[in-house]
UniProtKB/TrEMBL annotation:
<protein>
    <submittedName>
        <fullName>Succinyl-CoA:3-ketoacid coenzyme A transferase subunit A</fullName>
        <ecNumber>2.8.3.5</ecNumber>
    </submittedName>
</protein>
<dbReference type="InterPro" id="IPR004165">
    <property type="entry name" value="CoA_trans_fam_I"/>
</dbReference>
<dbReference type="InterPro" id="IPR037171">
    <property type="entry name" value="NagB/RpiA_transferase-like"/>
</dbReference>
<dbReference type="GO" id="GO:0008260">
    <property type="term" value="F:succinyl-CoA:3-oxo-acid CoA-transferase activity"/>
</dbReference>
<dbReference type="Pfam" id="PF01144">
    <property type="entry name" value="CoA_trans"/>
</dbReference>
<dbReference type="InterPro" id="IPR004163">
    <property type="entry name" value="CoA_transf_BS"/>
</dbReference>
<keyword id="KW-0808">Transferase</keyword>
<dbReference type="InterPro" id="IPR012792">
    <property type="entry name" value="3-oxoacid_CoA-transf_A"/>
</dbReference>
Length: 233
């Protein structure tokens, strides 16, 4: 039987070194690989390029790597909710590349599927298109976007099995799905690691062929960025 389990998070991130490019799943704080991020903070790896929808908040998620200035470049579609991110970007300490959210997702999916590049109308006529090839399709201008190239992808799932098959839960699926398999090595951090055959094949979102390492995380905080509730009557 295929067995891609590793003993712990430290073994999962083994090989991640200074200067590498990492793709990290999640949207805001929803579905982020908490254990893996904390382990990267403790590893003191530096000068990394991080591709993720956003950079977490000041004291959680990727914000923890920003606090220790371990991220050299951030490629994201949204940069709100993080004062330290803003400070480093405005001071020139952090290189930032902003990209439309759909384009970011597709650049990950393209990498996942082995597609080197694609055309999209998103961003044409803006700074996003500067220096990029453009082409007319049916009277509408498109820009050429290249798939991401990353050393590691780190994703978080609800359930997984020994072979690396993954199931996401609700909105925590977000960027995790297209990011699995988008790096040379994909690490999957799961809430529940089950025996082979326990996952319904019809419910699997990502097949194990996309994953090289899998482990069961622990003590997930699952923070909510901005909790909004209606007032009680």
């Amino acid at each position: 039987m295929i067995d891609k389990r590793v003993k712990n998070v430290q073994e999962a991130i083994a090989g991640i070194s200074d200067g590498m490019t990492l793709i990290v799943g999640g949207f805001g704080l929803c579905g982020i690989p908490e254990n893996s991020i904390n382990a990267l903070v403790e590893s003191n790896v530096k000068d990394i390029t991080c591709i993720s929808n956003n950079a977490g908040v000041d004291d959680f998620g990727l914000g923890l790597l920003l606090q220790k200035k371990q991220i050299k470049k951030m490629i994201a579609s949204y940069v709100g909710e993080n004062a330290e991110f803003e400070r480093q970007m405005l001071s020139g300490e952090l290189e930032v590349e902003l990209t439309p959210q759909g384009t970011l997702a597709e650049k990950c999916r393209a990498a996942q599927c082995g597609i080197p590049a694609f055309y999209t109308p998103a961003g044409y006529g803006t700074e996003v298109a500067v220096g990029k090839e453009t082409k007319d399709f049916d009277g509408k201008m498109h820009i050429l976007e290249h798939a991401y190239k990353a050393d590691f992808s780190i994703v978080k799932a609800w359930k997984g099995d020994h072979a690396g098959n993954l199931i996401f839960k609700g909105t925590a699926r977000n960027f995790n799905a297209p990011m699995a398999g988008a790096g040379k090595i994909t690490i999957a951090e799961v809430e529940e690691l089950v025996e082979p055959g326990q996952l319904d094949p019809n419910e699997i979102h990502i097949p194990g062929i996309m994953v090289q390492r899998i482990f069961q995380g622990e003590k997930f905080e699952k923070r909510i960025e901005q909790r909004t509730v209606r007032k009680r009557n």
